[in-house]
Design brief:
The chain is mainly beta and about 120 residues long. The protein has no helices and eleven strands. It has strands at about 5, 10-15, 20-25, 35-40, 45-50, 55, 65-70, 75-80, 90-95, 105, 110-115. Strands 2, 4, 5, 6, 9, 10 and 11 form a seven-stranded mixed β-sheet that branches. A hairpin with a 4-residue loop joins strand 7 (about 65-70) and strand 8.
Length: about 120
């Protein structure tokens, strides 16, 4: 059974940085396509960033956020710089088998709040 556990969220001021972490257990990290999603209050969950060899980013975070992974530690990270109030959301780590389109494994989420 694959488990994902996020950490690193918090309350910061606009312009600050945070690094989210996602610990993956139950399967080797390199087996999965990994991503971060987020959901703001009253909004649908949205894609933030993905890594599977190459990296992909939502337009709203490109140039400010960086997704990375450490296969030796089975960890995925999301470095978030120049945070804006619009980045306030619950951030979720997700994993998908390479042959699957949908992300089938999700963490419980970590809250990020950016004050103006």
């Amino acid at each position: 059974q694959v488990q994902l556990v996020e950490s690193g969220g918090g309350l910061v001021q606009a312009g600050a940085s945070l690094r989210l972490s996602c610990a993956v257990s139950g399967r080797t990290l390199s087996f999965f396509r990994m991503a971060w999603f987020r959901q703001a209050p009253g909004k649908e969950r949205e894609f933030v960033a993905q890594i599977f060899g190459d990296t992909y980013y939502a337009t709203s975070v490109k140039g400010r956020f960086t997704i990375s992974q450490d296969n030796a530690k089975n960890m995925v990270y999301l470095q978030m710089n120049s945070l804006k109030p619009d980045d306030t959301a619950v951030y979720y780590c997700a994993a998908a088998r390479p042959v699957e389109v949908e992300y089938g494994y999700w963490g419980q989420g970590t809250q990020v709040t950016v004050s103006s």
